[in-house]
Amino acid sequence: MNVIEADHLSKKYGKDSTMVEALREVSFSVPQGEFVAIVGASGSGKSTLLHLLGGLDRPSSGIVRIDGEDLYALKERERAVFRRRKIGFIFQSFNLIPVLNVEENIQLPLLLDHRQPDKEYIRDLIQTLGLTDRRKHLPSELSGGQQQRVAIGRALAYRPAIVLADEPTGNLDSANGREVLELLKLAVRQYHQTVIVISHDMNVAAEADRVLRMQDGRLMSDTRGGSGV
């Protein structure tokens, strides 16, 4: 089953002489449990593509289906709820809530939805992330690598259909970057997640199941990754 389907996806900014085509007729699909890296130079369209897959921006044309749902056929409020329940986000800047501890930050998507967290699953997730002894710590009391692990936990807390990661190793040193990459691979194996990562880091591409290479807003190649997961 394809969890993600992008069909002739395009995005234009401005008009007439100032128009920029950030994305041009991009089509691909991703089955459940696949780890996909989107790579390309700055300005290639990979961030735009990620934002459209995550419902953070509207395409100029084309369709995005997540778990069979036409994302942009939903009304704004419906899409916000769908995004919270079905799409996990991991950002380069972590985006943790400074007044919430590790456990509260991880549970945040569920709490925002007035859902009772599955305590056993959350406890297992925190243990898998190596944060058991840090679960009551605030973000300011954590290293950068630990904060990114919390962000991964938050993205996985709702058991979303897909996880979208925007340069997740960009603010980390090589050791912590490797650790985060291993955790994303673990999410695919252990939690059967579908993970899409955009990155300049060729180590990410080498570890992915598939590599989508973007250039000038177009999908130039779709190939199998290096060692896989």
UniProtKB/TrEMBL annotation:
UniProt xrefs under CDD domains: ABC_MJ0796_LolCDE_FtsE (cd03255)
Gene Ontology terms, MF aspect: ATP binding; ATP hydrolysis activity; transmembrane transporter activity
Coiled-coil features, chain-numbered ranges: none
InterPro entries the record matches: AAA+_ATPase, ABC_transporter-like_ATP-bd, ABC_transporter-like_CS, ABC_transpr_LolD-like, MacB-like_ATP-bd, P-loop_NTPase
Sorted UniProt keywords: ATP-binding, Nucleotide-binding, Transport
Record-level GO cellular component terms: membrane protein complex; plasma membrane
SMART domains the UniProt entry points to: AAA (SM00382)
Record Pfam families: ABC_tran
ABC transporter domain: residues covered: 4-229
PANTHER family reported in the protein's UniProt record: ABC TRANSPORTER RELATED (PTHR24220:SF685), IMPORT ATP-BINDING PROTEIN (PTHR24220)
Name of the protein described by the UniProt record: ABC transporter ATP-binding protein
Taxonomic lineage of the native organism: Bacteria, Bacillati, Bacillota, Bacilli, Bacillales
